[in-house]
Input
Amino acid sequence: MDLRNRVMQEMKQAMKDKDATRLSTVRLINAAIKDQDIALRGSGDDALVDDDAIMAILAKMIKQRQESARVYEEGGRLDLAERELAEIEIVRDFLPRQLDEAEVDEAISKTIADLGATSLRDMGKVIGQLKQDYKGQMDFSKVGPMVKDRLSN
Output
């Protein structure tokens, strides 16, 4: 089942379960997807956003909520921070399983070996290949410095 249909099914299930937090979060996801659809229409393309674009939307939503939670915690608003963290978990349900640190480390090593990367000049190729092979499964803001460290040694 594609992500768009999965979001719709989850929204229906949240309504049936009367799960207000999940329902509101899934509605936000649905609204973000529809916003992207409308933006595509504005460019003259009648196509709907694909699963890759939806995963990018979800990743962006997670980053926004992480930042909000951090700001709320710094401001002493732990109740709002907890709500943001709960929304993050709901959004993550729609993404592929995140690799743990050891798996990310192994993926980086394998990709560097497969590409024969030896210097920082190869960093773009390595990260590009990782993004292609592990789409939505790792946080590339953390992967970049790890690859850079490996290639600079």
The mean pLDDT is 89. Residues 51-74 form the longest helix (24 residues). Residues 3-92 form a domain with the Hypothetical Protein Yqey; Chain: A; domain1 fold (CATH 1.10.1510.10).
